[in-house]
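@channel anyone free to eyeball this complex?
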Amino acid sequence: MIGITSYGAYIPRLRLDRMAIYQSMGWFAPALISVAQGERSMCNYDEDSLTMAVAAAMDCLIGKDKTKVDAGYLCSTSLPFLDRQNAGILATALNLRSDINTADFTSSQRAGTTGLLTALDVIKSGNRKSILVTASDKRQTRPAGFYEMWFGDGAASVLVGDEDVVAEFLGSYSLTYDFVDHYRGSKSEFDYTWEERWLREEGYAKIIPEAVNGLFKKLNITMNDVQKLVFPCFFKAEHRAIGKKLGATPEKMADTLHEVTGETGVAHALLMLVGALETAKPGDGILLAGFGQGCDALYFKVTENIGKLAERAGLKGSLANKKTTDNYMKFLKFRDLIDPEMGIRAEAPVQTAMTALWRNRKMVLGLVGGKCRKCGTAQYPPADLCVNPACGHMGTQDDYEFANVKARVRSFTGDLLAVSVDPPAIYGMVQFEGGGRLMMDFTDSELNDIKTGMPVKMSFRRRVVDTARGFSQYFWKAVPQTDWIPEIDFQGRVAIVTGAGGGLGRAYALELGRRGAKVVVNDFGGARDGSGSGTAGPADVVVADIKAMGGEAVANYDNVATPEGGQNIVKTALDAFGKVDILINNAGILRDKGILKMEPENWSAVLSVHLNGAYNVTRPAFEAMRNNGYGRIIMTTSAAGLYGNFGQTNYSSAKLGLVGFMNTLKLEGAKYNIKVNTIAPIAASRLTEDVMPPEMLEKMNPDYVSGIVLYLSSEDCKDSGNIFNAAAGFYSRAAILTGPGVMLGDDKHVPTPEMIRDNWEKINSLEGAKPYTELNMAVMDFLTPPKANGGEATGGGGGGIDVKGVFEKMPSVFNAAAAAGKDVTFQFNISGPAGGDWFVAVKDGACSVTAGKGENPTTTIGMADTDFVDLITGKLDGMKAFSAGKLKVGGDMMKSQLIGKLFKFN
Amino acid sequence: MSSGIRDKVAIIGMGCSRFGERWDIGAEGLMVEAFQEAIADAGIEKKDIQAAWYGVCMDEVNVGKGAPSMGLALRLPNIPISRMENYCATGTEAFRGAVYAVASGAYDICLALGVEKLKDTGYGGLPAWGSTAGTLVWQFFPNATAPGLFAQLASAYAAKFKIKNDDIKQAIAHVSAKSHANGALNPKAHLQKAVTIDQVLAAPIIAWPLGLFDCCGVSDGSACAIVTTPEIAQKLGKKKKDLVTVKAVQLAVSNGYEGGFNEWDGANFVTTDKCAAATYKEAGITNPREEISMFECHDCFSITELVTYEDLHLSERGQAWKDALNGMYDRDGKIPAQIDGGLKCFGHPIGASGLRMIYEMYLQLQGRADKRQLENPRYGLTHNLGGFPHQNVCAISIVGKYGK
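replying in thread with the prediction:
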């Protein structure tokens, strides 16, 4: 079976709104309004039929082995060279083999279909196995003509062969007629077109059906065997009429794409074919016809393989990647139809030396650099001597293709001095993944949309046209992918990950390193149960992996289980990188035994590593973080600790102990912007490899946990003191919740066991259970449980002032003298209908009152609205309010006594 | 075993033309203007000069190739003249040739002259090289200019040290304003008018964040130096206590590391950093921040000057912008920079700039800097850089009093 084995397309990003043409030139040619629907595709200033062909061909070759391509045809009537094979430039740009045959098919609008059927005939002969057929056109039109409206720029590419065929080729039928609907002489810039009605009636309407019917007869098929009838015809009515004449129902007619691109010349038949293939089902029959001094008709049958092609842009993706413009002047300038003043600076010499181009054709046209066999450094340009200062070996570079390598913007600028037809000139340093960098021109983007770190794709573009010598010169440019969502960045951050030699710790370390953090990779290198004297290996391997990605890391082999070990780990970070921002306490071991077999040694070993280990490293790390006013600490707990797990009393205790550690540490860290959070991960690691079935482990990649750990380690994360489960993509919050409880007994009567028994349900109830963020709040609730809100008056009491009024008045009753040397903040959370939240800051003898919640208050005050007003106006005594449970104080309780001194309300 | 250049060569005379858009004069006339001053300053006769080094960069738009243009302009008596070119470091490169010739003992008295006439091109800005940049380079170098390439230094520096956009703009504006205040005191400068920070900030953007006043202009000019040994200088009547000698002169040239390897972060000059270390070593300076009294650095763009403060080891990494804003490099600051007004006020006639920098250091050391005179300077440093951040030549020289 022979036929189509792949396809691709490219439509330039710019689309000219046809109404813009009409708005400029409608005064001159009012009839243009009849075709001014939608948009026509428009080459950027640096695109031509050759650059579009390269893009379409690259799209077509996705997932295909280009070393197998043994012929390449380029079909177009607008190629940059009349004599210098353009298909050869295309082959060099794609870095195809040299021992192939290439040809330009030109001089007719049916060059694309002719190229395609010729390729298929060659495959059928068995003389070649894989032929790439690319069709492209960028036709020049006079302003304010119909053809300017009808035409668009674009390219399509089809690979044909005998392996993994997606659409079987069953035959073709061709007619050659010297029907001159239009022509372009060899020295002319524009087409010369004859009368439209004659074109339609004598040309399209007669010749296309003759070819299609000829094919039907030759293959003994009918329109019933055709699910998609594909043929370009920019006369809409004629297109419909021809279809009808041939017996095709409207849904069989492939859309001519007038509203979205316009007719792309030689490319259009293949472009419409790509569109048909994208939506085809196995078994569909596609009939393709291309008109132009005759007509070619080809018939394909779609196979089961149609759904197996790797994802590519194709017609659909190309149409979606668009930017509409209404700048008709820009269209005219980009096509040199107007000649604006470029200035003397534009007169700089532009000659290309053919000898230099030949010697460097792969590098310049193919973006082929080098990769050093000795040190592995990928580099551009390729050179005799390796660019790595630690290597410098000579003659050690293998060809390394950069055209399809992922890359990012490292730095960029918009330059208004450089000569440009579309200022500002945008260029910058591009960094390739896996190594290699280059200062490059950017294209297809606006300056404001570009950000450092943004991904870019390589695109083959026309750099310069040497008009005096008639030479077009090509190189690659970077196209910023502006739909990128910036990654959470860790540049400039220093992270310590304990137990990072494998499993979860390793996943965290690698990802942090990849995102720019400097990482201390700690791993004692012991066995799973913690035995052994440790090895350097695991930590070193992770450090090497981070460096290979271009990141920075150092290894540390200390055991977290000792205070000295912990200090040393933090010292390693300070010595190597000067600070500590992030600490992930991940190191852990297992010694599972039922309680009766749980000897003291096994109990304490597990607590030593998990719990004490976290203390040993966290304490010095906390100090470093405090000095910097920033920190993110992660504890690793476990479902075993949170919920319990047979045989793991030691592990469960240690793991829940870490939650306790976090609960208090978060309070102590709050004022230094040190946030502490805990995760309970479930993933495939050394600790789980024999406790989970292999099929389950397969889905439990540690990478599925590192996402939430990295988020909790980032500056973006403002939460502190929370616990999260993370398992194979599932995330949930775990928390200690406390039920409403019940108060029993009173001053005279101690609650008896019987009372306990009789109120058991109430005591146990978790209805409306809530979390507490610190002891004080909880204890106060227990000692003075809030009474149910009665129908108390709306906050105000007597005296004419309400809660809001109090805060409005605060600055005016502020006692600055009492505030000398004080630097405190109060968070007032007033409940009730007239309540709200206010944040009061006192510093440098001044006070500020803002509505809402502020960060890290010294003291938190919680009261009901009426109580608050009474307190403030002196009706309610502070101590009485506190012991009656009406005044809740959190944080620094002593400072709350300042409130009465700082604000005198009576 | 080599022993460097310290105190082996004395400068006995220097000259500097008026810099600016010299519609009145060509390169030949500029050379004569500078040379006349130097020869008078040295107190020797033209026939005493035994060899010359001649620096011009963009010869295609002024003097053309080869050395004869200097021989013709100055009517030198068929002595050796070596044509030098090394991008914008051409001036220091010419100086280096003359200095080594004297230090080697091959010649007694040598001349180093730099000249550039850029205003015959017919348009503003540095001339575009096009394919004359090199047959291979031309085929893949982006459509870049100096402002755009140097502007990327600014965004890299700001990102590296997490500096806000407004702060970086303020810091570089301060750099330019400071230079203008100095240039206003210099009759040989092209621009002799002070500007305010607000004027700098409001100037139109060329390549963000560089605005018009962050970029030096294009101008014409020439400067030259006559050098000999300290012994011969004293025989010629120069007083030992007034002798200005060369303490060090070094060069560092890029090798592809910045632009083609994966480490350089774009926020500084690898070459300047290394060249500075070599220069201080040659001069015997161990604490540049305390020992350098004044310096001229290559302020083609304000951001270049800013990061160079760090590459010259005068500011700590990441602190240059704060030091600049605090006035450390102002005329009355700890280490005045561009005391003559710099490239900012003189413009940048490429071949001449390196020698113009040495001219000001020379005048300052001899107490002849008029309104710009600093008090008792000990060491003066010149930093002369050509190319772009990712591929360049850095030349640094240090001059001081003989024996001190």
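from a first look: DSSP finds 15 helices and eleven strands in chain B.
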